[in-house]
Specification:
11 strands; 13 helices; alpha/beta; 2 domains; D-Maltodextrin-Binding Protein, domain 2; globular; TRAP_TAXI; two-stranded parallel sheet; C4-dicarboxylate ABC transporter substrate-binding protein
């Protein structure tokens, strides 16, 4: 073989080898990695994030998702603020707190803007104690008691701090940090006197609450009408639902009256409008796949666009991500009174 032909052959082989590599590099360049902040490993917040990542990754264009577990939704927001994740697991209540530098954001504001992006399920947080505790019949009876207000650095923990502050009890209720799955034993031993529990979409208890209700003889401590009115005036959303439909038994009440917040996955100008539009569209059009994993997503599926717009209306001063805004405008449900978040 002549030297010239040999060189041409080498060039051809090199071109054949490099062609697929170039294609792979081009694909990688067009793919955006999206690190989703979630709840603690093994929690409902982590499981739902994994489901959202799977469905969004399946149907979103050029988006590759991974799930980053954190201590909870508040911790997730703080990691987002530092740039350690690309979106955070956060509720409408926490977005409002972040915007107004309240609660866990009072001393240090988030370093990055976070906008309303998508909401996936409601969560209701009621107080329970042992049925035999005759000294605890009302919320005011919790004064001077040890209460597990959900783990620190989570949305429900910050929610109950606000609840007790509004009711003038914040310095009279002692939070005791415990392991979720040890709650039944610690209630029985008196390490804690009462606990905050969780149901999802007024349909099902989360794993912690299901374990608690199964292993303990409990009663629900409701908020009375006066307390409920004070909390509503203070910006806390209150709900009323059938305990038997959720827990399989009444637990001492005909209806549960407690605070509720709506969780979802939120990001900011760090993610483009195109990417967020694809993310939102992929989830909104495939809620059936989410419901197969957990019936907690049924509210999102049944409510559809109204589910999203109702939550946005609950905190209208918190900006909406441009990607979500585009999707809502496309569907004809955008409200011009809402604010679109800046892209910087």
């Amino acid at each position: 073989m002549r030297f010239k032909d040999y060189v041409l052959s080498l060039a051809l082989v090199a071109a054949l080898i490099m062609a697929p590599m170039a294609g792979t590099q081009a694909m990688a360049a067009d793919t955006t990695d999206w690190r989703m902040g979630s709840g603690k490993m093994g929690s409902f917040g982590y499981a739902t994030a994994a489901s959202v990542a799977k469905v969004a990754g399946k149907y979103s264009k050029n988006l590759r998702f991974s799930v980053s577990p954190t201590q909870g939704s508040t911790a997730s927001m703080k990691l987002f603020g530092k740039g350690d994740v690309d979106s955070c697991y956060a509720s409408n209540f926490q977005l409002w707190q972040a915007l107004h530098n309240e609660g866990p954001f009072a001393k240090k504001t988030l370093q990055r803007k976070v906008y309303q992006t998508i909401y996936t399920y409601t969560a209701e947080y009621s107080v329970m104690t042992l049925k035999k505790r005759d000294d605890i019949k009302t919320i005011s009876d919790l004064k001077g008691k040890k209460v597990f207000m959900y783990p620190a650095a989570t949305g429900p923990h910050d929610l109950y701090k606000k609840v007790f502050k509004i009711l003038g009890m914040v310095d009279q209720v002692k939070h005791v940090e415990i392991s979720l799955m040890q709650a039944p034993d610690l209630l029985k031993s008196g390490v804690v006197d009462a606990v905050v529990t969780c149901s999802v979409a007024q349909l099902t208890p989360n794993a912690y609450t299901e374990n608690l209700v199964t292993r303990s003889d409990l009663k629900i401590i409701n908020f009375n009408a006066e307390e409920e009115e004070k909390l509503k005036k203070g910006g806390v959303v209150m709900v009323n639902y059938d305990p038997k439909a959720v827990f399989g038994k009444k637990l001492g009440v005909d209806a549960v009256i407690c605070p509720s917040i709506v969780f979802g996955y939120q990001t900011g100008p760090n993610m483009s409008a195109d990417n967020v539009y694809n993310f939102v569209k992929s989830l909104m059009e495939h809620t059936g796949e989410l419901v197969k994993v957990s019936k907690g997503f049924k509210g999102m599926q049944k409510g559809g666009l109204e589910f999203q717009t109702a939550v946005i209306n609950s905190i209208p001063d918190v900006p909406v991500h441009a990607g979500l805004a585009r999707y809502l405008k496309e569907k004809g449900v955008w409200n011009d009174a809402w604010k679109v978040g800046a892209d910087k």
